[in-house]
Amino acid sequence: MAGGVIRHATGDDRASALRRIAAAEPGTTWMDPEVCRRNPLLAVRLRRSILMRCYNGDYHTDVFDEERLAGRIADGSERVLFWGPADQVSRTAELFHAPGCPPAEVLDGLSLGTHTSLPGEELYGRGHVEVARTGSTQGDSAGAADAILWDLGRVLAGARRGEELHTISCVPRNRRSAHGVPGGAAIHRLHTRAVGSRHWGVAPFYVMAGGSLEVLDYRELSFEETYVRQGFDTCGTVHVSDTMSASLAADLCELNGFDVDIRTTETGPLGRRDAVAPAPPGDAHGPRVTHMDLDAPERTLAEAAADRGEACTVAVCNLNDARSLPLQAALVRDGFRLTYISPPKLVPSPEGHRSIPLRGGFCRIRTDAPLAAPYYLERGPLSDTERKLAAQYRDLLGSWRKETTPNE
């Protein structure tokens, strides 16, 4: 299929290609994340230094709790990659092999890029690895591609040693640069042209630099291409409660080359129920995700619908189960919109193959932050299916902007 602006343009079986790249030793322009385990606190501080400089001090994601994050790096839960010019990487490696942590001015003097792979179960579900915390203090992305492809290949290769993981999930930035705020077009192009992750919708998850809520891509890369293909082969009917959700799901499947039986059934929404306990405050700069329980729909609806002030409230539903229809209708009633799907999969497990249904992410956003749209809504060339998706995203942004501060 033509495309490559939104859809990946690198061929289907990227996992095996990335594992071949990762079979080589690290290059001179990046550092093996395993080195970070020698001094986890240094890794936490250096990552934060890079991201704070990259975003002009306006960065709010989870990089500040030093003791907890150092523990996660020490036990391997978080893998932090650093890349940059060979002399900068060499100097960084020396710091990790020396005792203690250098002062902040030393870290702030290093010109590097970084990203982190970490457990993705909370956001995306069991078996997902998240790739996030990406930024660079360099003027361009030179060297980033080789480092990131090598690191993702290592993540993919690790799952072949018995880890129960099946998908790398990420929400790469995609906005244009404006008013001193760095854009995300370069990292987005890396995903479409080199990584080969698949586009499955948009995720308005984070308030980023400049105070805008960024409408990010939602992308996945399967550990084996067969997982998704076999998932669609056994998917069955996809049930949605409204035509807009049906149209988005159909176009996303078409974009990625899959046919699916989508049935739209108008259903009365599930009744409201008060939250069982006072809702703790949410993260004004990040998402809160509820994985909806179809065996206790009223309880999880009350949990998802509670307004805690987070940047984006996300309710994830099993769209292969018709029992989700009243729940979907209730979410739409309460201001949620389907913005992404996670495709069905057939994945290995100790008990044999495990079937994962097609799931939909319904999002409700903060209404007091301006929106930053994907750059590809303003420029092409787009394939026919990409144009259909872009039109839907523009409509979605238009409906949100009626409720929010005008976009920059």
Q: How does this model look, in words?
A:
With 408 residues, the protein is α/β, with parallel strands linked by helices. It folds into two domains: 14-224, Gcn5-related N-acetyltransferase (GNAT) (Aminopeptidase), CATH 3.40.630; 227-401, no CATH class. Helices cover 34% and strands 21% of the residues. The protein contains 13 helices and 16 strands. Strands 1, 2, 3, 4, 5, 6, 7 and 16 form an eight-stranded mixed sheet that branches. Strand 6 (198-207) and strand 7 (213-222) form a beta hairpin. It is globular and about 65 Å long. It starts with 13 loop residues before the first helix and ends in a 7-residue tail after the last helix. The mean pLDDT is 91.
